[in-house]
Q: What sequence folds into this?
């Protein structure tokens, strides 16, 4: 049934071998996965977490050296590698154990345009190939087309990229990557071409053209225009910011004039210098006051010293006969209450002795005692008088000092009050005039500032206009190229549109129409449902959007593929995003793609497989569909085991469906 | 020897002794105590709080209702031993040596404010009569009140001084002349004593 004469020879995967990929381990040893890929549908089924998505990502990695970041963004062909290479490196880290990292690899056998490719890519370096063979089979003999025996891994990769681009006829390896990852793969991130302006422009310009160099130009010019637009926008933004600043300054200037700014500024300056002045006075008086307090302490301590001296001297003075009183015989009498001379005893003894010792004569020999004693007493008296004078002088000094301190204290309190009052006055003034800036009038008058800003504004304004002007220069050429794409589409419409309509109808049940539209810089396909254009994604249910997008990709695949070089679509668990009502319809749509147009599909399915698989199996039969289970790929958890057990029944149904409708 | 005595207490003792001896030819121990106590109250007028501080020793009221300070008692002994005082029967007199010592020290700045208070206290006893002064001081309502509450209570001199000050202000006595407030106080006490008795 296939009568495709499309422009590209898409590749057909024949065999996949995955070695030392730690995720696929059983009983602690890594399993080598070897899968022969049949024509038609290759369906890999397994419980959640067994690695179905990883399997598809490994295949895409083998082919392109990339795994896409899990987000909805679709990058242009030139951006894909840079945007995803870091993620690619991270992606395999957890899935391959460190010990296996350098030996893990994917081997892919594929055919394109009668040539057979065999490549081996390690996971440790995405830019290298461990092996690249390109050969044909003639009389069951393998005949090499190129010699790669002396090439380094990087050279092998470069050669592979070049050769596969040539064989497909797609012009650039990055276009191949774009088609492989965004158009032919429908992964769990559910990116959509229909509703993404940038993605559809890239996809459509690769799909519809007279010459691939036009595509190159479109994508190149589009990037250039986007860059100029972005630069123009940035400059415009800068100009707007500056403009706002100018307006603020003008407002301030106006406000200043209104508020008699000069006067206010004078008032502000006065208040400010008042604060400075009172602060200085306050601090100075505080220092003086503290000095006086210190001086007081010094004098007090001096007085204390003198008083101690005074007390000592006075004590000596008040005991004039201490020599006699401390005579050992007198002391003995005192201790024993007994006269040392006559041995009489009694309490009066010592009192009498002491009294007599203070008389003018010695109580025993009658010698006059006063002379020497008086001299000594006079001497003491003189000393006491001197100390007395000193204390008195210090006391007067202290009194004066205390008076001075008290005066200073009052002065300090006044100064402190003045200081805080001036501070308060300043802050009150600031509060009252909070809308006016006094602190930062700067050396630069406001007019100069406005002038400076005006210059900046003019510069950004000019730049912005320049960027837009440059973009506008490119625009006619770009639009011309888009028109060419439009023309190419129109010429293919006759074949392409019915393809889409067929796929869409088998899924959605009604006739849809699509048309090519230019929207700004982008080109898009709009479709009409019941005569009303559905341009916005929210006008359809999620399921409808997903599968219409797949229908579009299928139509593109069929339209673009040359006979015997049909495309292979990679679809990850499609039933996950499907309403139950559509399950068998999607099965039918997929079957149409495979059976009617001889295309290929590698899909994964969850164990709770649905009517989708049954109807697909019924339509495809054993010839066109292979159903593989992941049971032996890895150790199962209890939950997975349970799931697989339940799946057994469904599996049998699918097997029966496959056997029951053998495709011819 | 007993503990070393403060110069102030020795000065007070000989100063009061000389005055009482001058006026009445002799004195008793309790009279020295009483006039020292009276002086200590008047001292609040004369003292310089910065230089002088307080009176240096405190009084209790003894069993006979007299103010008593042990420091002062020891100072009397000291003067007796030194030959400044002489015991004659029931009285003490001041010796020539005592006179000389007082003359030597009486002009010291150190004691000048005390001397003013002592002078005022002792002069009052002539102006009002010794008996009346003694009676008035001993019958002070405040002292009587304290004795009722507690045996041998400590006299709160400052509290009594505040009373003196209050009376002085009421009668308009000039603060620079100490004798007028002193006499007024004694008269006031005598008056309240009479009122108390009437009650």
A:
């Amino acid at each position: 049934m296939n009568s495709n004469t499309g422009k590209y020879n898409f590749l057909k995967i024949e065999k996949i071998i995955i070695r030392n990929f730690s995720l696929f381990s059983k009983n602690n040893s890594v399993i080598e996965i070897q899968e022969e890929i049949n024509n038609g549908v290759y369906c890999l089924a397994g419980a959640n977490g067994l690695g179905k998505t990883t399997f598809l990502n490994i295949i895409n990695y083998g082919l392109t050296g990339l795994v896409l970041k899990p987000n909805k963004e679709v990058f242009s062909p030139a951006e894909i590698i840079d945007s995803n290479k870091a993620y690619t490196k991270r992606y395999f880290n957890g899935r391959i154990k460190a010990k296996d990292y350098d030996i893990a690899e994917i081997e892919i056998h594929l055919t394109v345009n009668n040539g057979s490719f065999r490549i081996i890519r390690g996971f440790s370096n995405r830019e290298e190939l461990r092996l690249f063979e390109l050969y044909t089979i003639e009389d069951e003999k393998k005949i090499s087309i190129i010699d790669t025996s002396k090439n380094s891994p990087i050279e092998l990769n470069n050669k592979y990229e070049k050769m596969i681009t040539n064989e497909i006829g797609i012009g650039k390896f990055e276009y191949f990557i774009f088609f492989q990852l965004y158009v032919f793969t429908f992964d769990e991130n559910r990116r959509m071409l229909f509703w993404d302006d940038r993605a559809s422009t890239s996809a459509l310009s690769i799909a519809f053209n007279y010459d691939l160099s036009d595509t190159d130009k479109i994508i190149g010019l589009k990037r250039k225009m986007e860059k100029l637009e972005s630069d123009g926008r940035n400059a415009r933004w800068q100009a707007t910011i500056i403009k706002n600043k100018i307006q603020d300054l003008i407002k301030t200037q106006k406000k200043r004039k209104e508020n008699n700014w000069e006067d206010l500024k004078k008032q502000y300056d006065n208040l400010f210098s008042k604060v400075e002045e009172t602060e200085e006075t306050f601090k100075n008086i505080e220092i003086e006051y503290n000095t006086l307090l210190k001086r007081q302490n010094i004098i007090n301590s001096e007085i204390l010293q003198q008083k101690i001296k005074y007390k000592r001297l006075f004590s000596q003075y008040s005991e004039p006969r201490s020599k006699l009183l401390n005579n050992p015989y007198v002391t003995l009498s005192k201790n024993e209450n007994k006269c040392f001379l006559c041995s009489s005893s009694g309490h009066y003894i010592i009192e009498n002795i002491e009294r007599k010792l203070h008389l003018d004569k010695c109580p025993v020999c009658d010698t006059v005692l006063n002379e020497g004693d008086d001299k000594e007493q006079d001497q003491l008296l003189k000393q006491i008088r001197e100390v007395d004078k000193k204390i008195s002088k210090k006391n007067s000094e202290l009194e004066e000092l205390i008076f001075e301190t008290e005066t200073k204290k009052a002065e300090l309190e006044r100064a402190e009050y003045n200081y805080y009052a001036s501070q308060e006055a300043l802050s009150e003034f600031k509060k009252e005039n909070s809308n006016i800036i006094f602190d930062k009038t700067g050396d630069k008058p406001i007019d100069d500032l406005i002038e400076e800003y005006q210059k900046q504004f003019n510069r950004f304004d000019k730049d912005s206009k320049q960027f837009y002007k440059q973009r506008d220069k490119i625009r006619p050429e770009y639009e011309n190229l888009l028109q060419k794409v439009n023309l190419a589409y129109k010429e293919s419409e006759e074949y392409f549109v019915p393809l889409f309509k067929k796929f869409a109808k088998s899924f959605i049940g009604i006739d849809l129409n699509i048309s090519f539209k230019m929207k700004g810089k982008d080109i898009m396909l709009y479709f009409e449902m019941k005569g009303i254009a559905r341009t916005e994604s929210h006008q359809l249910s999620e399921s409808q959007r997903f599968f219409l997008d797949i229908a579009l990709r299928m139509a593109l695949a069929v339209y673009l593929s040359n006979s015997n070089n049909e495309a292979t679509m990679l679809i990850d668990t499609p039933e996950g995003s499907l309403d139950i009502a559509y399950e068998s319809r999607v099965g039918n749509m997929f079957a149409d793609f495979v059976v009617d147009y001889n295309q290929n599909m590698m899909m994964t399915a969850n164990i709770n497989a649905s009517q989708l698989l049954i109807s697909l199996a019924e339509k495809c039969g054993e010839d066109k569909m292979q159903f593989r289970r992941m049971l032996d790929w890895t150790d199962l958890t209890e939950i997975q085991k349970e799931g697989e057990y339940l799946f057994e029944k469904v599996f049998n149904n699918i097997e029966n469906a496959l056997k029951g409708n053998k495709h011819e | 020897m007993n503990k070393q005595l403060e110069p102030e207490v020795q000065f007070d003792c000989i100063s009061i002794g000389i005055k009482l001896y001058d006026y009445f030819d002799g004195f008793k121990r309790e009279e020295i105590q009483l006039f020292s106590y009276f002086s200590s109250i008047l001292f609040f007028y004369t003292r310089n709080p910065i230089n002088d501080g307080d009176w240096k020793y405190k009084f209790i009221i003894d069993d006979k209702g007299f103010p008593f300070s042990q420091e002062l008692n020891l100072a009397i002994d000291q003067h007796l031993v030194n030959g400044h005082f002489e015991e004659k029967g029931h009285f003490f007199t001041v010796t020539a040596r005592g006179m000389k010592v007082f003359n030597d020290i009486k002009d010291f700045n150190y004691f000048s404010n005390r001397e003013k208070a002592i002078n005022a206290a002792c002069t009052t006893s002539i102006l009002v009569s010794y008996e009346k002064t003694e009676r008035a001081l001993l019958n002070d309502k405040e002292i009587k009140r304290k004795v009722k509450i507690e045996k041998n209570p400590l006299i709160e001199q400052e509290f009594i001084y505040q009373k003196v000050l209050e009376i002085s202000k009421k009668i308009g006595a000039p603060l620079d002349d100490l004798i007028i407030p002193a006499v007024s106080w004694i008269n006031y006490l005598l008056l309240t004593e009479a009122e108390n008795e009437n009650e």
